[in-house]
Amino acid sequence: MHRLPSENSIAQYVIDEEPYYRATGQEVALYEAAYAVRMPMMLKGPTGCGKTRFVEYMAWRLGKPLVTIACHEDMTASDLVGRHLLDAGGTHWSDGPLTLAVRYGAICYLDEVVEARQDTTVVIHPLTDARRVLPLEKKGELVHAHPDFQLVISYNPGYQNIMKDLKQSTRQRFGALDFDWPVREVEIEIVAHESGVSPQIAGMLVSVGEKSRNLKGHGLEEGMSTRMLVYAGQLIAGGVAPAAACSVALVRPLTDDADMRDALEAAVKAFF
Amino acid sequence: MHSVAQAHPELFSALPDAARELVEAAWDEASRGLSFENQRVLLDGAAGLLQAGCGIAVAVSYLRAAPQVLRAYGESSLACLLGVSVSVLRHAGTSALDSLFDSLPQALGRLPAAQQLHAYLGIIDELSEAAPDALIPLFVQSGRLLDQLALDGLRRWALLGVQSHGTDPDERHAWFRLESRDARAILRAAGEGVLFTAVERRLGFYLRALWARDTALRPATVSGEGRKGQRVSIVDGVIRMPRAFEVFLGQDGVALYRAAAAHAAAHLQFSAQRFALRALRPIQVALVSLIEDARAEHLAMREMPGLRALWLPFHVALPTVTFSAVSLMQRLSRALIDPGYHDENAFVARGRHMFAQALDQLEVPAISREIGALLGDDFGRMRVPFDFRTYVIEPLYRDDNLHLWDMGDAGEQRSDDQETILQSAKLEQQEGGEQSSAQTDEEQGGPAQPDTAQPDHVSASEAAVIEAALLQPYLYDEWDYLVGIDRPRWCTLIEKAAEPGDPRVIEEVLQRNDETVRRLTSMIRAVQMQRPQRLKKQLEGDRIDLDACIGATIDLRAGRVPDPRVHQRQGRNSRDLAVLVLLDLSQSTNDWVPAAGTTVLELAREATALVAHAMDDLGDNFAVHGFDSNGRHEIEYYRFKDFDQPYDELARARLAGMKGRLSTRMGTALRHAGHFLRQRRAAQRLILLLTDGEPHDIDVHDRQYLIFDTKRAVEDQRRHGIATFCLSLDPAADEYVTRIFGARNFMVLDHLRRLPEKLPALYLRLTS
Ligand SMILES: Nc1ncnc2c1ncn2[C@@H]1O[C@H](COP(=O)(O)OP(=O)(O)O)[C@@H](O)[C@H]1O
Ligand SMILES: [Mg+2]
Question: With a threshold of 0.90, does the pTM exceed it?
Answer without folding.
Answer: no
